[in-house]
Amino acid sequence: MTPAHRARADRMAELAEAEGVTWQPSSLLPGLSLRVTNTAGVQRTERSLSAAWNAAGHLDPALLDQAWEAAAREADVCGLRTYAHGAGTVHGSVSGCQVLYVQVADSAVFFSTRLRWLAETAETLTADWQAWSEILAFGAPLAGRTTFQEIHRLMPMEYAEVTDSGAVHLRQHHWPWEDYAPQASADLAEVTRETVEVMAAHMRPHLVSTGAGAAANPMLSGGRDSRMLTALAARESPDPTQLTAWSTSSDAGSALEELVAAEVAETLHVKHRIVTGHYRAFGEDFADYAEAVDYQASFHFWLMPVVRALRETPGSIFDGIGGGVLLGGGFADPADAARRTRRDLMSSRIQARSRYLTEAQKVLQHGVAGAVADRAQSGAWPTAERYADHPNAHTLTSYLLRTVPGIAPAPAKVLGGAQLTVMPMVTDQVAGLALQLPHHAKADGAWYPHLLHAADPRLSGMPTADDLTGTRHHKRRIASREGARHLAGLVRNGPAAGLLSAELAAADPATGAGVVVWQRLLNSQRSQHLIRGLALLSLWLDQYGTMVDDPDPRRMRHA
User: Which domain of life is it from (predicted)?
Assistant: First the structure.
């Protein structure tokens, strides 16, 4: 490492310390500067250093005796392997849901779990308008892109390598999930039993022998995945009275989510807390979420009130990310798939994840709407094409277009910013079991009754919030006057205003008629998604606009 490299690493560490991060003793080699918290595992010999970490912590030290590919697969960890002469590898996890950013600069690799520490110490930053088109269309940048051209997020089994000669390469090791395919001979009862037991075994270390004792915090919505994990936490805990299930409004407009969650918690005899956001605090929640995910995703702002409470509550968090795509069968090709061409199927898989674009003309200028759609869908095409002929094509495509880039930051960074966060459903073992089941066994949630009964028979037959209603029961918080005025002010008073449709550009939220225009669009899922993306862009430009080359978002017009 050059003195400049080491000085930058020191500046990154100082930024982290200013945010309250406490480091373990630094690990310094001639070619390495590494700082980790006490949840990471580090093993040092005379001539090498290995490290591993994920959002869940409590790692088995034996992981560091394995090749990184095996460790990433076994425990879904990111990490590094490096040697005294300066060669080494920084790698991502098997699921891709653990967030790690890298930047190759001057024959060195800088890496961080926080994009901000890289961005604010970089010499050059260039806005990536392809990434921003994808945020608007999909909710997050695809294929490892970030809002900066110079910084990359590691995807499943990706790694950055510095060779003995000093050359730097960004590559992807074989992703084992590509090997998993439906098996006609799969025994549904046996796969169900094994899947539930694998999840339970993954959760068990986080329920015993931790600094918080038996305390744990399963997230509990009105859906199936979270109730399954809550049931398993109660089953595996040596003291279920130390569990607290947490619910909050997903801002989808249905009060039944919290009510159904309360019924589940009562059935399982688990303590339950419901934390909901206030209309007047919407702006603070949105800004705090954007900062927590480094402005890289636009989905889960409504988590912030419960996150603040969880910061004061010891115990690991359990989150059901990945359940819908891997277990639920909800991400599948249409019924007439056999009659469609290969290209039509690829397009349908992309359009299913970018359905928000059907409302783009209501939110964006005509030229901008078309350019964003062209850019975003072209960015998704390589992923769709890579898996076009795979037996789990739609599942893997959806996982890489939505779960990894857009959904994973919520447990890994937002909840993970409060307490250690465990994601049992995206482990390699669960993925392998789920992807081997024939599609018909999972279609439209067909597998869930079996899984729920295996987790706890008391859950059998209990309806979800979605089962009980097909309509919304109350106004979305984001569509309140407070929410509408806040978002309208962010977008209309900043550089993103030049992207707005004529109707929104003319709708002054300070007037009664103007705020109603914004409220109407925010009360519809698809147009709301696009407005959230523009608001996220406005916040990002407030933070980095003076630091990036060419910060004009109208560049998105040029596909």
Answer: Bacteria
